[in-house]
Amino acid sequence: MISSSNNLNFANNREIIISKRMKKTALIYWPKKGNVESTAVKLATYFDKDAFDIFTISEVDVSLLTNYDFLIFGGSTIGADNWEDTHTTKWYSFFESMKGVSLKGKAAAIYGLGDQVLYPEHFVDGMSVIRNELVSAGARMIGQWPTEGYEHTDSKSIEGDHFIGLALDDDHQSELSDERIEKWMQILKAELGF
Ligand SMILES: Cc1cc2nc3c(=O)[nH]c(=O)nc-3n(C[C@H](O)[C@H](O)[C@H](O)COP(=O)(O)O)c2cc1C
After folding, report:
1. Which pTM does this prediction carry?
2. Which of 119, 147, 180 has most ligand 1 atoms within 8 Å of CB, for mutation?
């Protein structure tokens, strides 16, 4: 787990929109060091640290996920091939370790980093892979996000006129990311019933 000494800035100066009233939230993400991780650090600022844990997929003990009421997953899309031929990836190992873990009754949401300019036909495709695994495990998906404001042509992570989770493009629209995160947190808050 990333400790609070790792520059994590919890909800000190903002309204805590998802608080102790929600029993426990875990944020699980991969990879480290890039846009996915910096987004995880931003999302952490919306939570009360006593009710929130943050892990990378390589360090989380999946058997403990059942202790949480709400799970947020974050990932990037690094080429369709990497997702389809995942035997060597960390996500593949993570999904394997998830087999047999029931997330029935848990709310879950996904955020995904992508690049809509270089990969307009596969923008944030990776979210769909994560979503399928979570649905198989019985999770109730929340946090759909409108497709307006992006220039992609296709994505496996769209259903109707919504992405299945928060789509962020820090390569070409980084100036919009903080505002998108804020709005998404408000959506999550409403869907979680606060
Ligand atoms: C080799 C490679 C392949 C990529 N493929 C896709 C893709 O298929 N779809 C997409 O939306 N973004 C794609 N991206 C963009 C990344 O998802 C994006 O830069 C993301 O912010 C990276 O997150 P990270 O810094 O946490 O690794 C690709 C990037 C690289 C380097």
Report:
1. 0.91
2. 119
